[in-house]
């Protein structure tokens, strides 16, 4: 289970929030998240695949040239995991950083908590 949790964290960062192609992002959400998933972020809470897809797509549209880069190794504990990351122009210092915490059910993300260390500009 630990390997799956780490995989979910890395793939979520790249294939959901780092993905600019709507079809690929939607396919990743379907594969990585439970139907009743919940995302908690400073902007609010969203529930389900459609709401998550809209949130990730809208966020991506605000800075399409940014890349999400893991900072350190993903950690897993029982049915949860966390990953620190940065986001900014490719090959530059991140404009903002954060930590994703996930709760996993049946091998998929049931809940994602996004903690921002700094607010995007």
TrEMBL record:
Xref: Gene3D superfamilies: 3.10.450.50
Name used for this protein in its record: Nuclear transport factor 2 family protein
InterPro entries, sorted: NTF2-like_dom_sf, SnoaL-like
Sequence intervals crossing the membrane: none
Span of domain SnoaL-like: 15-109
Pfam family, one: SnoaL_2
